[in-house]
Design goal:
binds manganese (II) ion; 23% helix; 6-stranded antiparallel sheet; binds uridine-5'-diphosphate; 12 helices; 5-stranded mixed sheet
Amino acid sequence: MVVNVWEQKLLYTRHLKGSPVGSRCSDQMVHNDLPHTSIIMCFVDEVWSTLIRSVFSVLNRSPPHLVKEIILVDDSSTKAYLKENLDNFMKKFPKVRILHLKERHGLIRARLAGANMATGDVLTFLDSHVECNVGWLEPLLEQVRINRKKVSCPVIEVINDKDMSYMTVDNFQRGIFTWPMNFGWKPIPTEELKKHKITDKDPIRCPVMAGGLFSIDRKYFYELGTYDPGLDVWGGENMEISFKVWMCGGEIEIIPCSRVGHIFRNDNPYSFPKDRVKTVERNLARVAEVWLDEYKELFYGHGYHLLQELNNIGDLTEQKELRKRLQCKSFQWYIDHVYPDLDAPPARAQGRVKNIALGKCLSLRNSSVSLESCDAGVQNQQFNFTWLRLIRQKDLCISPADVKNQVTVSPCDNLNGDLRWLHKSLTTFQPVLTDHFVVENSKQPMCLEAETSHGLVQINVCSPTNQLQKWRFDKYFTP
Ligand code: UDP
Ligand code: MN
């Protein structure tokens, strides 16, 4: 049976005024047997008033029978007021349970510690500086009630950190990422809205979630293997859980009728045990290695330095086994079905590689490189200039030989900088893919050059005017 649980809405119109939530959300029906939830809020050195405000907004604006408990996980805060003082204060609120972690776990492992003591049917994760709005919880739980593999997120609205003013945000925004896995928002194109007749109360399918605020069926969270516990402190965990949910049979949606304000701050009010940027990059490299399949080249191709993280990302055996055990789909499937507008070309450039002076093309036969008459139908002339700047045909890459001025073919290895080429002009500083192939790991600039007499190629000191050193791929995917 479905009932209207929005009667209370008129009591709290402050945040709904002028908001896209409007009256239509108050007409929304939900089941009267919704699962209950444990709210999990992790914090480290949170400001007292914002923490209390977060907890009160949950207590005041959620149907009591749907909130099994509120678990506050103190991630080893340094502020004294967050210890006994907080325990004593919260004694008046029997639903609030507090876990003081003895050492800093970082957001990801702190959430897991909270989840481990949760008893609700659903886990609802929130940041410790939020303000839940009227009717925020029911539509989130409704989705999980409809399908336990639905992970639902509220619309995150903006609370100003200077004056606590509340700003509503536009509907129809999807959570997306751009390379190298930066989270962002992207509006659904108007044509799509029209085509699918999407109204402002329909759930919005999101390729990735923002990360801080969402509800997930508790058992399902564990079936998915929770978060990768090898992720450190903060960052990248939203990518991990998003890929995992989609590729392993679930869905992520933003529920427009659920609105939660979040205080956005420029600085974290806590310290990072290690360098912040490094921590996030390491986490992202872990995610890339487990989930991105062949697309991880795109990730590393958008920041070589990310490759350095490979040395210290830790053991991934368990995460890879989990993916196998859950029979998760490929990243290609994810792109095709969940994020078709992801910008993900297969390489920087592709096709035949034609020498400008001779009009002949590179060819790879019996593991050696030569020049032949160009022929689009010949597989031996098809190369990729990969995201990691290898000139590649299947598993083989064209590279400088140990012998001076000679070119050889070696098994491709993304970690081997000796195989990399810069494809660029020697006369302009514009970063465009064109003309020369310059050996990346060389003190003196050395270039790939066609040799005229035997149909071979060699490496020679770069010369901006030498046409024998200029090459062109059939097709370029990036400038
Ligand atoms: N947090 C934590 N331990 C950490 C880092 C963060 O418990 O090591 C908490 C933090 O207090 C907040 C939540 O995790 O409640 C998300 O962090 P934050 O708000 O800084 O992330 P943002 O909203 O900026 O993405
Ligand atoms: Mn936050």
